[in-house]
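note to self: the first set is below, dont mix up w the second
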Amino acid sequence: MSAPSVQQMAQELLSQTPAEVSLSLRLDNLSFEIKTNRPELAQELEGYFRPFMQAPDGEPPITVYALETPAWDCGLPLEPKEPEPGKAKIKEEYADLPDGRLVRKRLTGMVFIFGGDTNLALGPCLENPNQVINFINNRQIQRSLEQGALLAHAAGVCGSSLGLAMAGRAGQGKSTLALQLMSRGVTFVSNDRLMVTRGQDGPIMTGVAKLPRINPGTALNNPDLKKVMSPADQERFAALPEDRLWALEHKYDVDIDACFGAGRIKMGFGLDMLALLDWERDAGPCRLAQVELANHPDLLASFMKEPGLFYLPPEGQTAPSQADYLKVLAGAKVLVLSGGVDFERAADLLAEELQRS
């Protein structure tokens, strides 16, 4: 028996659970219509995306359905998604269908069905709104990569006239550094993903509508971020030894508007500088040096990002190479932060570069 199509599955599910609540979003240059069966979910999504929203235009929107349902058994054999290097836990399983893909989150039971014009999330959405948010953002990434953008594992900020991307291996602190720069007056572009394209005057970066998530140590060491923690949490985590605090995984969402003031988000900007984090704890003073990116393929690899399960490449599209990334980044000033991890000094050095350049 052949597998059902994405369109058939979506039609059947929507006939059983009509999505009668609608929400319009515009993120960067894309319009979205979010349809759901629960007004509480629409309200939560509207509140989350509000700082990123722009005025709507006349373009046909990308429609995304988010259905609050019990955990759903699709009845299909699912293949586990192998974890990324350095990680052991399998979080997702999937099935490729004739016209798209189905992905299931093992821990939450959330299911995502997508392909062509069909984009459907179902399951306990109200318990897992971040997974719905990520699905919407992945639809933006899908459209951007279809149009030729390259995906980067990087944070982005911008000054009055120049943009800066920051990349490094997992756990190097690009989000923490971006927020330290926010405290020095720059504007937020993106926390963990950038789409990079080639503009008339050089590379352009586009962010995704995702608020930063930080560990307690990041919040404690930046006065602008302490408000994300309760006074009790501040006292509890401040008492921990530095090594334990550094390794702790306990995330807080950073409301940019609440921490830094309204109007400090801009989803698209020129990518004039790229800072690559190649530092280690207790490795001496933090240093900043300009380099030729072509001479540092290992550092370039930390900037490159595979799209993952939620991207369906158009037929014939091949994975981009390091040469493709070098081409799109041509003209950007490339800097390397080495030596010891020192977020305040690094933020000062990069803020000076933004002003000097």
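second set (the one i keep forgetting abt)
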Amino acid sequence: MRARLEAIMNEHGEDLVLVRRESGEEIPVRAFLQPFLKEREELPVTATPLGAVSDQRWLYIGPAAIELEPGDWIRFQDKCYAVQEAMTICFRRRALYGRAILRRKKRGGKL
């Protein structure tokens, strides 16, 4: 199952760069990155065909072999996202994929 998920990520995912908080090491990653759907009318939001999405919080789904930690950064195109929460999702005690909640870095360097 893990191999199938990683094949899907490789075929349909985005090219991201993981920047380690401690060392500044940059690691290329092929993963999914998308904004969270909003349930309430909080700002800032953007309207999409699926509903309102947050401009602040993002969901990362990536390969289990690359573990993210809070404080790491994800760079995608010209934007940066800070890892707030990260976990490895397992099935039958085997790691399937990594999941993280990211917060978009605002202009000027602050979250």
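remember for set 2: The first helix runs from residue 2 to 12.
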